[in-house]
Amino acid sequence: MNDLKDLAAYINPLLAIVGLLVGGFLAWGAVIFSFVLIPILDQIGPVDTSNVDEETQQTLLGKRIFDWLLYLNVPVVFFIVGLFVSVINAGSLSNTELIGNLLSVGIVIGSCGINAAHELGHRKATYEQRLGQVLLIPALYMHFFIEHNRGHHKFVATDEDPASAKKGDWLFWFWIKSLIGSYLSAWKLEAERLQKKDISLWSYRNQMIQFTVIQLIYLALLSYFTTGFGTLIIATSGLVGILLLETINYLEHYGLRRKKLDNGRYERVRPVHSWNANYQIGRIVLYELTRHSDHHYIASKKYQVLDHHDEAPELPFGYPMMILIALVPPLWFKIMDKRIPQI
Fold first, then answer.
1. Cβ atoms of residues 302 and 339 within 8 Å
2. How many angstroms separate the CA atoms of 265 and 68, rounded?
3. Dihedral pair phi/psi, residue 109, rounded to 5°
4. Model confidence over 44-88: pLDDT tens digits?
5. What digits encode the pLDDT tens for the residues 177-234?
6. Model pTM greater than 0.90?
7. DSSP symbol at 316
8. Which of 79, 244, 276, 341 sits in a 20 to 30 Å window from 103, CA-based?
9. How many CB atoms lie within 10 A of CB 4?
10. What residue ranges do the domains of the chain occupy?
11. Is 73:113 a contact under the CB 8 Å cutoff?
C-alpha cells in the first residue's frame, strides 16, 4: 500500500475531469484541492525527513509501478485537454465555470504534464525522454527539455541561470526573465550541440525546430477541433501550467548562490543550493519534487528514492502555500530573506 500512495498525484486530474463533466463549483475542484486543502493538510500533517536504507532503495528502484505512474500521465493529460475542448464546444459553460476549468486544467498541465515530463526528461531511456517531451506539448514548453537538462542543472544557483531567482527578485519580474531567458538559452544550447557535430543550425535535426513544428501542429489541431476562442482558452491553460512551473523554479533556488572558484568554474552543486520541503502531501502529489536538494545533487536519481539532507535549507511551508506567498512579494521577502543561508 505504501507504494500506491503516489496514486495521490492523480487526485488533481480526477478533480479536473469531474469539474469538466459536472460543472458548478466543482469546476474549481483542482484549484481548491491544490491551494486550500493541501496547504492545510501540509501544516497539520507530519514533516517526514526520514530516508530509506540502501537495500530498500534498490527494492523501490526495481518496482515498475513507479515508472508506470509517470507514463500514465500521457493519456490522462491529453484526455483532459480533449475533454476541455468538448466542453468548450458545447457552449454551456458560465464565465465562472470557464475560469475554474481553465485553472484546474492548467494545474493538471503543470503538475501531471510538466512535472512528470521533468522526471522523465532525466531518464536515460530514449522512449522515456520522448514521453517527457510529449507531456510538454500542452504547455507549449518543449524547449524545457533542452534548457532544464543542459542549462539549468549546469548553472543552477548562479546568475547565468535564468531559472534561479536572486534575492530581492519579484516573482512577476522573474517570470519574464525566466520565460525569455530559458527560451533563448535552449536555442543557444542546441546551436552549440549542432556546431560540435558540424550540423547547420537550420537543420531538421535541430530539436528547437522540431519542437516548434510539433507545437504548431498541436495548435493547428486545436484550431481544427474547436473555435479560435477555444484554442485561446486551451493555450491559456498551458500558460497557467508554465507559470506554476516558473513559480516553483522561483521558490526552489531563491537567494541561493554557488561560489565561483579561482579557475573560473562554479563550485559543485550541493544540497545547500536548493530549498527543500518535506511536507508529505505536497511530496506525494508532485512526485517528490519538493525534495529538490537531492534531485540537483544527483540529477539522475529517480523520484521514489530521493533523500532528505540535513544541510539543505527548508522552506517554512509546503510548495502550494509558498506559491501563494510568492504572489505577494512584500510578504515573501519578509518571510524568506532572513532564512537565506550564508553559503
1. no
2. 39
3. -60, -35
4. 888 889 998 999 999 999 999 999 999 999 999 999 999 999 999
5. 999 999 999 999 999 999 999 999 999 999 999 999 999 999 999 999 999 999 999 9
6. yes
7. S
8. 276
9. 9
10. 2-339
11. yes
